[in-house]
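Troubleshooting: if your tokenizer reports a length mismatch, compare your output against this known-good record of 113 residues.
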Amino acid sequence: ESGRWFAGAIALQVWSVAGPSDLKAVNMLMIKPFIVYNVVKRFDLIYEPYGISVYWNKPAGEKVYLPLGGGAEYEIPLGAKTTLNLGVQFFKNVIRPTKGTVYDLRFLIEFVL
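Known-good structure output:
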């Protein structure tokens, strides 16, 4: 966190370690980055995709989802300790599996108590 900027990431690696032998093995990495730039009080520009995903068990060219894009979020005070956050983000998966999702559109309605 520095001035108007707030950034970080959460990473998660998932492996299957037990279960019936007829189930597919799981080996997936997901990195969830977030970047927030406070433009003015209660209004932010944001980059917070569902995550950058790598499916290690898939064939080459079919392993990665890499979303680029972003959006905005606005905070509406509702009381002394309650706010309503409204946001929208749009992403294009610039790297994706052949049959993967090309675009993601996210809407946010969030009550903060």
